[in-house]
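<context>
A single protein, sequence plus fold
<sample>
Here is the protein in question:
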Amino acid sequence: MTILDKIIERKKEEISASRSHISIDQLKNSELFGRKSSSLKESIRNKSGIIAEFKRQSPSKGIINDKVQPLDVTSAYENFGASGISILTDKDFFGGSFDDILKVRNHINIPILRKDFMVDEYQFYEAKSMGADVILLIAACLSPNQVKEFTELAHELDLEVLLEIHTEEELKHFNANIDLVGINNRNLKDFKVDLQHSVQLKDQLPKDTLSVAESGIYSLEDFKYLKEKGFDGFLMGEYFMRNADPAKAFEEFSLLI
């Protein structure tokens, strides 16, 4: 069983437990459910293109930074030009929580991506109820038909969709309603990073597709290389979060791009 299999198995257990405590109707009645979402597509076009991530840990790296607070970091990301914020909500494997989004939602004005492993319609109502603007669909754990159905549901809820792919086979998951396509530079099975592989995949997408380079961007040179190759967005978390002061790290990076 791969780490991805373990995550999905645990995710289904979490969803079942959540459903038993809070119904979809209750989620619909939450304060933020009726909020008009912000567009990550537009923000990427008009700003730096960086989707800066708040991320405490990962299965491959362990603890990255568990000393900083979500609002301190994400407000700095916004102040220094991030196009959007990515916040992990998976608890067991990434140390995240729904509260990390709730704590910042009313204090920042750029789009928030709920980054999690979306495998059930219930999670989309959760995302809307916590004030997210965008959800992540990971092709590696969904069928093309599930991606299509989940995209339709997301749009019904006024949420944009970032589809994450890593292999040529996963190009089949793309459909015309997808808002953005993220290409993971890191293989989810062995965690190896290959930027050139991502460039080759991007070149096979329809011409006008907004593309996002995800993970494994470890330097200014990596960023510039991917930008030169035509990527529109750049999801970066560890590069900033591994610093004692992620806010300062992002500020310094923003001055160089």
Q: What stands out?
A: The mean pLDDT is 95.
